[in-house]
Amino acid sequence: MKLRKILSTHKELERKILELESKYDNQFKLIFEAIKELIQQEGLNKNRPRIGYKIGKGTFRIAFWFSDKFEPIILESDLPENIKDEYKNAKRFNKSRCIYIDILDSNDFNNIKKLIDIKLEK
């Protein structure tokens, strides 16, 4: 997913989330509620959203951008090692790195919730 494709406004992102929420089950609803909370918090920040998503045929991918100050929190968390490795090995852009998660099963929902909780910590 290219960063330029990430939605440019919080209102547009919120509208898309509402559309998706009406199509998917309760697991998605929990994730969408957490994303909405992030949007509200980041709405105070004039920078672009630090989360994004992409829907493909049979897939849903979510991207989380974390600044370097989150590194110790992510690495000390109970996230799976493959997610921690993705963060450590991700290319830096403006002192931030990205973690992508393709939602394939319920473990992915749990990991997304953990990442949202980490974003809400700071």
Q: Could you outline the blueprint of secondary structure elements for this entry?
A:
Layout: H1 10-23, H2 26-42, E1 51-56, E2 59-67, H3 71-76, H4 81-89, E3 96-102, H5 106-121
Antiparallel strand pairs: 1-2, 2-3
Helix pairs in contact: 1-2, 2-5
Explain what this protein looks like in three dimensions.
The protein has 5 helices and 3 strands. Strand 1 (51-56) and strand 2 (59-67) form a beta hairpin. Residues 1-9 have low confidence and may be disordered. The protein has one domain. The protein is α+β, with helices and mostly antiparallel strands and 122 residues long.
General form = globular
What is the count of structural domains? 1
The main pleated sheet reads as: 3 strands, antiparallel
Number of helices: 5
Low-confidence stretches: 1-9
The secondary-structure class comes to alpha+beta
| Strands in their spatial order, largest beta sheet | 1-2-3
Q: Give the DSSP E fraction (strand runs of 2 or more residues).
A: 15-25%
Helix content: 40-55%
**What do the pLDDT scores average to?**
75
C-alpha end-to-end distance:
25 Å
Instruction: Summarize the helix and strand pattern as letters.
Output: HHEEHHEH
Summarize the structure.
This protein has helices at residues 10-23, 26-42, 71-76, 81-89, 106-121, and strands at 51-56, 59-67, 96-102. The protein contains five helices and three strands, in the order ααββααβα.
